[in-house]
Amino acid sequence: MSSDFHATDDPFATFAAWMEEAKASEPNDPNAMALATVDADGLPDVRMVLLNGLDHRGLVFFTNAESAKGVELAGQPKAAVVFHWKSLRRQIRARGPVEPTSAEEADAYFATRPRVSRLGAWASRQSRPLGSRAELEQAVAARDAEFGETEPPRPPYWKGYRIVPTSFEFWQDMPFRLHDRAVFDRAPDGSWTRTRLYP
């Protein structure tokens, strides 16, 4: 795979190559991305989430469907993301419609999470008011006692989402702010067109 985004017509190949380089250089969470959605009034909302899957179908993340982002995606299933790797002085932007992953995909990923994280998914009423840290810890302990020796299954409201990109933009820092940029746009037949952009 090439890191040169001007040398390919497949943005996923460059994305995967850059991600591998980020894994080798970023000190923490190279798969962190800023996820933007909009609320019922059209006001943008953004937060950091982790990319948990990448293939030619799109970019996958998982979350509580009852969270603010889950509610916003239910109302307007479109999103934009940006990755910024300071160690590499690079960023990638992508946007497109959002579709649910299969329940099997969500189950498979949920099973890889540490037990406490799985208990937390049951205990947390994500994005809703919390009286104290102790209240959260007590809720986790209660769920731990409830499940006992059994493995916590995936909660029905904990789901996977796939962003199906209609565009990617790659950005590489260059001297004197003469940065290198290119945008890839998906055509109706699924092919991609690449356009170099002024910085």
Automatic annotation (TrEMBL):
Question: Which stretches are annotated as coiled coil?
Answer: none
Question: Any idea of its EC number?
Answer: 1.4.3.5
Looking at the record, the residues that make up the Pyridoxine 5'-phosphate oxidase dimerisation C-terminal domain are: 158-199
Q: Which key words tag this protein in UniProt?
A: Flavoprotein, FMN, Oxidoreductase, Pyridoxine biosynthesis
User: Which residues of this UniProt protein bind FMN?
Assistant: F62, T63, K69, Q91, Q126, S127, W171, R181
**What positions does the domain Pyridoxamine 5'-phosphate oxidase N-terminal occupy?**
21-141
Cofactor(s) in the UniProt record: FMN
Top-level class of the enzyme under EC nomenclature: oxidoreductase
Question: What is its pathway?
Answer: Cofactor metabolism; pyridoxal 5'-phosphate salvage; pyridoxal 5'-phosphate from pyridoxine 5'-phosphate: step 1/1; Cofactor metabolism; pyridoxal 5'-phosphate salvage; pyridoxal 5'-phosphate from pyridoxamine 5'-phosphate: step 1/1
* Pfam family membership, one: PNP_phzG_C
GO molecular function terms noted in the UniProt entry: pyridoxamine phosphate oxidase activity
Q: How is the cofactor bound?
A: Binds 1 FMN per subunit.
The record's catalysed reaction(s) read: pyridoxine 5'-phosphate + O2 = pyridoxal 5'-phosphate + H2O2; pyridoxamine 5'-phosphate + O2 + H2O = pyridoxal 5'-phosphate + H2O2 + NH4(+)
**Which sites bind substrate?**
Y109, R113, S117, R177, L178, H179
User: Which family does the record assign?
Assistant: Belongs to the pyridoxamine 5'-phosphate oxidase family.
What does the function comment of this entry state? Catalyzes the oxidation of either pyridoxine 5'-phosphate (PNP) or pyridoxamine 5'-phosphate (PMP) into pyridoxal 5'-phosphate (PLP).
Q: Subunit structure, briefly?
A: Homodimer.
Q: What is this protein called?
A: Pyridoxine/pyridoxamine 5'-phosphate oxidase
Q: Which organism is it from?
A: Methylopila henanensis
